[in-house]
Amino acid sequence: QVQLVESGGGLVQAGGSLRLSCAASGRTFSRNAMGWFRQAPGKEREFVAAISWSGGSTYYTDSVKGRFTISRDNAKNTVYLQMNSLKPEDTAVYYCAADRRTFYGGSTYYGRELYDYWGQGTQVTVSS
Fold first, then answer.
1. How many CB atoms lie within 10 A of CB 119?
2. 112 C-beta neighbours (distance < 10 Å), count
3. Whole-angstrom Cα distance, residue 78 to residue 6?
């Protein structure tokens, strides 16, 4: 059974940091890009960041550029999201997801329809 399990969420004050992890099991995702999405109450799930299958390219939504860093460790089948300088508007449930495409070398990672495995989510709450 393929699973993506997020961890590392929690409550933090504005300006603080959190590191999210997403551990995959059941199959390797070393050939797939990985992404992070988030969903705030009453809002659509939105793209946050993605990393190519090789780890050589990363992509971010504008609101997190310079504050968040996505990385991966293919040996551990794990992807990370380091979140610094957190703001109250970053409050959401954060989901990791695996791109359905293998060895994809382009730059299109933003659509939810591109991902076919999702974790259960981890809550991030940033207080002001």
1. 22
2. 14
3. 10
Strand partners, 47: 37
pLDDT along the chain (128 residues), means of 10: 96 98 94 97 97 95 98 96 98 97 89 95 97
- pLDDT (tens digit per residue) in 77-106: 999 999 999 999 999 999 999 999 999 888
Distance (Å, whole) CA 61 – CA 69: 11
Q: What is the 3-state secondary structure (H, E, C) of the chain?
A: CCEEEEECCEEEECCCCEEEEEEEECCCCCCEEEEEEEECCCCCCEEEEEECCCCCCEEECHHHCCCEEEEEECCCCEEEEEECCCCHHHCEEEEEEEEEEECCCCCCCCCHHHEEEECCCEEEEEEC
